[in-house]
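Quick look at the format.
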Amino acid sequence: MQTSDGFLNRRPVQQQQLVAERPDRMEEACGVFAVLAAEQPVANLAYFGLYALQHRGQESAGIAVFNQDKVLLHKDMGLVSQVFDQDVLALMSGDLSIGHNRYSTTGSSRVCNAQPVVLMTRLGAFALAHNGNLVNAKELRVLVDDGKTEFTSTTDSELIAFAVQQAVNGGLDWRSGIEAALKLCQGAFSLVIGTPAGLFAIRDGYGIRPLVFGFLGEQGLGHWVVSSETCGLEIIGARYVDDVQPGELVHFELGSAEPFRKRWSDEPNRLCVFEMIYFARPDSRFFGESLYSYRQRIGRTLAKESAVDADLVIGVPDSGIPAAIGFSQESGIPYADGLIKNRYVGRTFIQPTQAMREAGIRVKLNPLPDVLSGKRIIVIDDSIVRGTTSGKLVVALRDAGATEVHMRISSPPVTHPCFYGIDTDTQDQLIASRLTLEEIKNHLKVDSLAYLSKEGMVEAAKAESGNFCSACFDRNYPIPMDQELLSSKLTLEPSGSTNR
């Protein structure tokens, strides 16, 4: 346990996680969660909120709780259920909790980079949790390094916290200080910030990462909950009220029936479209409906765009299944569960044997020969990023007796890296940036391959195409970046090529 004054009874850091082969899809964003409620077990509620958001990050977890003039902080490497137990949570009483699940995008996978970040100011301690990625982290580090700053991590999240600290120590109140700090930040950030003056929830001007809020208990009690997704509200029985809008700062005060809301930035909306396709849980709600419904629609669209004669449609668990069901409904080809996922295989501390590594995909996914044998199958997945595990999956399906394997992808080809909170490789490691469609088909050894069109992806969302960031498909980066940062990942772009 850690307080704003130092470290107390800290549990030993868990064994360093061993790096397994990276999955053949975009990797997770982070999850943030916060509860402001008097006489409620806010640490326990944050635990369950993070548990619902575990899909957004499995490297580390942390919760900070405000108890009068102290901030109690516990964070460590591992899943929420590994980092916390009832004994730890019982020590964390208070009326405001800030929680975070981490998947590293800026800063390595080490316990010092786990969140929330807790710092002291002249007005007391505050805790900050961040989902996203700054594109001006290098410049911001120079701005906040006043010669006295003691950096304890390598994350851009800590830089945001130092910017808040310095603004408040410079004489501003919490609301003005946070807003002043935000204006120094460029990139994607959905933030929850706990302070002695209440809870703040903020999204960057483009709204690239999601953030929602609701109330706990009876409306009007002033018990507020903020979560990366609506599934975090639902697990603790909180009622959804609204999204934190792009470029909005929302201030919740204890016992207040209505929050203070202010638009601090005015930029065009650019929600990450991969939140819709893959990242967010299918039961989370975007644009007034569950993502399960959207994912079924893109499956239907995919069937219209790339029909093929086959006996069976299967989905790659879990994110490929709704699209596979939609594909089946539109095509009339029966759907079946052809792959079984081991749901208890996460980020393991145990290194597999060489033979297991060679088997690869079967550690997490196992095909059903009695379903697949003698069948021409269409396999639906949400994306192909590197082409590594997808190739192993095809081998496993053929070994299970599939006579033909037709692969359909419920997103366009990923040709460019993300700079806004998703861990992607440099451009030369993205298979669709190096190979043609026919070359990818031959590399994967499938009988046919087709991707969803960008137009079909957007049309299925029932929203304007301008509402989304789709830079990983089309290089249309909405936030201007330094050329050095762009060139660090855009290894295949012509020299001097720029784009917003």
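Next, a different chain entirely:
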Amino acid sequence: MRLKSAALFIFLWYIIAFFTELPHPHEVAEKFFYLLFTPEPVLGKTLLDHTWASLLRVIFASSIAFCIAVPLGILTGWSKRLGEILMPAIEALRPIPPLAWIPLAYILFASFPNTVQISQIFIVFIGSFFPCLISVFDYARNVPEEFLEMAKVFRADEKLVLKEIVVPHSLQGILTGIRIGLGVGWMSIIAAEMIATSGEGLGYFIMTMYQVGGRVAEIVAGMAMIGVVGYLMNSVLLKAEKLVMPWR
């Protein structure tokens, strides 16, 4: 089925390329594999170098986001009082797109060294944090009532209920939140690198290829790398879900 889907995609691509200035799939593939290990003359780095730079920022920023979002999501979901205090502010901030934070990030981190890199990490943090928090919060809030009633029968205290019932029930929300948050973080870093250039990264590569004369094959090759990395990250996390929760 995947081969059929890929074949259909390539077929449609050839048709669109025939009527537009979009490069053909074989041209993009040739450019992609050439740039993978050969430094691009203008930027002096390979496509792998730019990919690794973007990926490191996403992993670093997302890890910080998840370390805060997971426990906060569990606590706000379990504690009604804490949820009533924090969730209105979270719901007000959550709809703001990560890119809308870029000007504010520049102001907040203007006095820091490497302002651009720190701002990019902050943008990825914002993009990863809220999806993970909301996913964990929903699962922690919706623990089945029969589980809680059973805990009351056995006179379990709050700490034990949280440890043995709420956290295990939230596991699906944690894994789903991480997968969605990492995807949003990956999209956020590409856009942030296109707006706030730092000399490396896939977003910077694509924007530079556009600015030096609209080199479409290189632009599409960069986009293809974004898709490949995003697909691989999602696949790895889905396999991790199956390992952690084989009953699913």
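The chain has a mean pLDDT of 89.

See the schema section for token definitions.
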